[in-house]
Design brief:
Helix content: 40-55%
Number of helices: 12
Structural class: alpha/beta
Strand content: 5-15%
Number of strands: 8
Length: 374
């Protein structure tokens, strides 16, 4: 019984810790997912609180996981786990049946699960949680009260620090398709279906069914060919079609011209400033960005801005901040997946992401030139 309890609380605790951590390193990602839920359930009035909820949820989940793993307040954590898992099991069941959102985001962008997969995961967790609740009389605390308080505070403090740091800079671990090192020019191209056509014949003498391709048909076999009777033609899938990880990224100019390949697959260095919403961007940061652009211009390095706003808003904003570089339009959601900053800066070369910076961390152009532009 003791070993089973240790195994159960450790398993549940590690799942909680992993779930809380991978969402906590990207609190804006969870914020966007919560806003999807608020829209789906007609609770848009909670949009403004989504970020606060995201940080608190990650902290609670991670801290509860720490308490389970280290045996802090075992009876209390068993009941808290039951409440948490019961709520999310019910929520994911509703999501699986009605699909108000594409995926629950329970593991952030680190591990993508469908709504049904998430529901089944919660059902499995529920088994272990119920075991902990029903065997609570056997629970033994691993720490004295002061030790329990210390472990709990350390767990909560660690997760809050990680979330706040990731908000003020960039996620400590980037799980997005635009992470450093990814070849974006490959990420925006879907995997084509690979198949072959099979011709099915029946041997009239042996009644054996045989499959051939157009190249392997034995029509030159004067003995076998007369015995074959055509039955049907069918397609054999060798590799299924797979949607590109980045499937909604389209760069267009004021005239509607598509410039995606020109920018993303630029064989030379390409700086991309991302500001998904200019009305909510950090306007003061553009003073330093303009200085950065001056260095790019001297070295003839391309620098463009991408925004989710229309060109009327873009033109007014450019005039306001004296932005002397071109801006293009991209879907706002696609821009949010590029970088968790408004604005944020990316450096690409030949379609590969070389570096990313939050607006707070954009270095001097000379530093970037020395480190990356070689």
């Amino acid at each position: 019984m003791k070993i089973l309890r240790i195994f159960s609380r450790t398993l549940v605790g590690l799942v909680f810790m992993f779930s809380g951590f991978v969402k906590g390193v990207d609190p804006l990602g969870l914020t966007y997912k919560l806003q999807e839920y608020f829209i789906a359930y007609n609770m848009e009035w909670l949009h403004g609180m989504a970020l606060v909820f995201a940080v608190i949820l990650c902290m609670i989940e991670f801290t509860l996981g720490v308490m389970l793993v280290f045996g802090v307040k075992p009876k209390l954590t068993a009941w808290l786990s039951l409440i948490l898992v019961s709520f999310f099991t019910f929520l994911t069941l509703i999501s699986a049946i009605y699909s108000p959102v594409s995926d629950c985001g329970c593991f952030g962008d680190a591990v993508k699960l469908t709504n049904w997969q998430t529901f089944y995961k919660n059902v499995v967790l529920m088994v272990f949680v119920l075991f902990l609740v029903f065997t609570n009389k056997c629970a033994i605390a691993a720490f004295k009260p002061k030790g329990e308080i210390t472990v709990t505070i350390l767990g909560a403090g660690f997760m809050i620090f990680i979330s706040v740091f990731s908000l003020r800079h960039l996620p400590l671990i980037d799980f997005l398709p635009w992470k450093v090192g990814n070849k974006i020019s490959e990420q925006i191209i879907p995997t084509a279906e690979q198949s072959e056509i099979l011709l099915v014949y029946k041997n009239k003498e042996t009644c054996e069914t045989l499959e051939y391709t157009s190249k392997t048909l034995p029509y030159q076999d004067t003995v076998l060919w007369p015995k074959l009777q055509f039955i049907e033609q069918k397609k054999k899938i060798i590799r299924e079609y797979k949607e590109a990880p980045i499937h909604d990224f389209v760069v267009s100019d004021e005239n509607g011209n598509i410039l995606t390949d020109k920018i993303v697959a630029n064989p030379r260095y390409q700086f991309i400033l991302v500001s998904y919403d200019l009305s909510d961007t950090e306007k003061d940061s553009f003073k330093e960005i303009n200085k950065f652009v001056e260095g790019c211009d001297k070295d003839s390095i391309s620098f463009v801005g991408l925004s989710g706003n229309n060109f009327d808003i873009i033109d007014a904003f450019r005039h306001d901040v004296q932005a002397m570089y071109p801006f293009y339009i991209v879907d706002e959601t696609a821009l949010r997946t590029m970088i968790r900053a408004n604005p944020g800066l990316l450096l690409l070369k030949n379609g590969e992401v070389l570096a990313k910076w939050h607006w707070r961390d954009i270095p001097e152009y000379t530093d970037v030139k020395e480190r990356y532009l070689k």
